[in-house]
Each structure stands twice: as structure tokens, then as C-alpha cells.
Amino acid sequence: MAGKKIIFVTGSSGLIGSEVCLFFHEQGFAVHGLDNNQRAAFFGPQGDTRWNQARLARLIPGFVHHELDVRDRPGILALVREIRPDLVVHTAAQPSHDRAAAIPFDDFDTNAVGTLNLLEAARQACPESPFVHMSTNKVYGDAPNFIDMKELPTRWDYNDPAFADGIPETFSIDQSKHSLFGASKAAADIEVQEYGRYFGMPTCCLRGGCLTGPNHAGVELHGFLSYLVKCNLEGREYRIFGYKGKQVRDNIHSLDVACFIQEFSQAPRVGEVYNLGGGKDNSCSILEAFELTEKFTGQAQKSVYLEENRSGDHICYYSDLRKMRAHYPQWDITKSLDETIGEIVASWRERQRS
Ligand SMILES: NC(=O)c1ccc[n+]([C@@H]2O[C@H](COP(=O)([O-])OP(=O)(O)OC[C@H]3O[C@@H](n4cnc5c(N)ncnc54)[C@H](O)[C@@H]3O)[C@@H](O)[C@H]2O)c1
């Protein structure tokens, strides 16, 4: 292992964490992952990520797994001091909008305090190493809902030409309803920016739209496409919460997320913020996602419609990718929505067989 660069990935058994571990292993990095399967504590057995941890151990020779909670401050400070990583990618989180209200302390301690623990650990041990934080579009709260909208046959869309390319990073994060999750992630987002601006560390926040891919343990409360496909394959009813099922999300494959992290790590900037999603081309409404999934599975999607929308939920959200493309012109979306759904279908079939 001597001479290899070291990457430290928190939330390594999750969707993004596992993709990043594999991607950087293939780039020649020594990989240290941290995960305590907290997703199973947040969401029950359906959220269990041990299978993904085992997959990493199988696929990455020398993979080092650290069974540690990001809330364990002395543990995190000591571990980062010991590893002194060349790159930190922080993906561990309580990731659900709706779940947060039931577990406000766990949510804030994980998302906000856990991020601070890692930032300070990195500042003490490896302040020159790029630090990439997975933030969320929920930092904008429900403010995108105040944009003038038009209703199309299967989706909502922005009616205001100022947002024809989607939501830019300059959009206000202030004075809107975030959910407790959006608030704890906004606190983390600001801390990550501050460790860049105040201490000069090469940090960045990636404000995700819907991040997806074949290795998500999708549950009703988190992992929209993964969960939707799972329902289709199991013949289970998918519950639509309001907005006529026309609410729009932009979906990005986890591999395209990992590729962007590589671009940033090779030419890092200080205290940056990017809106990271599939953009308008890879956006779909729930109704459109049903149709796309049915095309792959041949099975009609069962669903039930509930009038009440999720509190603070976006009616239409897609990311403006122009800043990412301008700063890192080598990067672009490589996986279409169709291809991504095809992979998710194949992966659930495989997991159901084993
Ligand atoms: N998936 C999405 O649609 C989406 C959208 C926007 C932002 N994000 C953000 O991207 C990041 C990664 O999302 P994901 O979909 O890969 O999530 P995920 O739930 O699949 O992975 C997160 C992993 O972190 C682990 N974890 C959680 N709390 C922990 C703790 N206290 N200590 C140690 N490990 C812990 C979990 O066990 C899980 O394996 C999160 O920060 C999330 O908020 C995700």
C-alpha cells in the first residue's frame, strides 16, 4: 500500500459512499470507509446497508472499514489523525426530510455536529486535503415552490424563464420551510463553506437533487427511484403524496457524482457550492417515473394517491448545472435517466435472487 494516496469516505456503505469507494479504488487510492449501519437504525431492516459493506470488502482488496459513528467526536478526531487522508468525502447522514421530525436530536447531531466533527478533524490533521461534503437541495427549503409554475399533462414546470435551466447556487437558502432535515443540512453546508472561507481549506458542498443508482437501499422515506422500482418489482402499492403525482425531481447516477468529486479533488477550490443533480434532461415526475419503470419491468405500477403533500416538499426541482460545467468542463452527465432506471431494475432483481 505504501505510496498510495488515501481516501477517507464516511457513509461508505451507502449509495454515494460505496460508489466513491469503488471509483477511487479504481483510480489507485487506498480506501478507508466509515459506516455504522445507522441507516438501519433510521429506517429499520429495509434500510440495512451491511450487504453493501460486504460488497466493498469483496471488490476492494485492502478495503479498511471503520465501524464508528460520526457523532463520536474523540473517535473521529483520533481516526482522521491516524489516517491523514489525502481526500475526505463526507456522505454519512440522516438523509430523510420526513424522518427528521421524529428524531430531531439524532438528525441534528448526525448531520450538523457530525459534519463539524469531521471538518475540525480534517483541519487538525490534513487541512490541505480536499474535503467534499454531500449537501442537499433542501437547504433551499420550499422557496423553489414560490417560482411561477405551469401544469403540463404529466408534470409541473417553471413558468419563469429565469429558471429555464433550473435552480442556481445563488438561490436563497433563507426564510423558507426546510424541514428539520433541511435545517440540519443547511447548518452543515454553512460550516463546510466556512472552513473554506475562514481557514482556507479546499472544501465544497454538493447540493444534491435526487442522487440515485443501483446500490441504494431505497425506502419510502428516502431514495425515490430505488424505492419506486422496488415497489414495482414486488407488486406493492407506491404512495403518492399530493401535487397530482406531477412533482418533478432531477436524478443523477451515483457514478456521475463520483466523477465530479474526482474533478474537484484534482483542481480543488475553496469553500465552493454546487447544485448537483441530473438537470432538466434527467428530470421526471412520479407519473413519468412509473411509465419509465414499467417499460423495463413490463409490470404495471400499483399506486395510491394521498391528497396531502409532504410538508415543505418541492413541487418542481431541477438543478442548474452550468456552474459545475463551467468550473470543471471535463465533467458532464454520462448516464441517462433511462439507463439509470434500467440499472436499478437489474440490481433489485439481483438482490431479490440472493
Ligand atoms: N440520495 C439522495 O437522493 C440525496 C439527495 C440529496 C442529498 N443527499 C445526501 O448525500 C449523502 C449520501 O446520501 P445516500 O443516498 O448515499 O445516503 P445513504 O443513506 O445511502 O448512505 C449514508 C450512509 O451513512 C451511514 N450513516 C448514517 N449516519 C451515520 C452515523 N451517524 N455514523 C456513521 N455512519 C452513518 C448510513 O448507515 C449509510 O450507509 C447524504 O449526506 C445525503 O443527505 C442524498
Quickly describe the structure:
This protein is an alpha/beta fold and 354 residues long. The protein has helices spanning 15-26, 38-43, 50-59, 73-83, 104-125, 179-197, 224-234, 254-266, 286-297, 322-327, 337-353, and strands at 6-10, 30-34, 64-66, 87-90, 131-136, 149-151, 156-158, 203-208, 210-212, 238-241, 248-253, 272-276, 283-285, 303-306. Helix 7 packs across helix 9, helix 7 (224-234) packs across helix 11 and helix 9 (286-297) crosses helix 11 (337-353).
Write up this protein:
Helix content is 39%, strand content 17%. It has helices at residues 15-26, 38-43, 50-59, 73-83, 104-125, 179-197, 224-234, 254-266, 286-297, 322-327, 337-353; strands spanning 6-10, 30-34, 64-66, 87-90, 131-136, 149-151, 156-158, 203-208, 210-212, 238-241, 248-253, 272-276, 283-285, 303-306. The longest helix has 22 residues, at 104-125. The chain binds nicotinamide-adenine-dinucleotide. Residues 11, 13-17, 34-39, 49, 69-71, 91-93, 95, 110, 114, 134, 136, 208, 210-211, 216, 223 line the site of nicotinamide-adenine-dinucleotide.
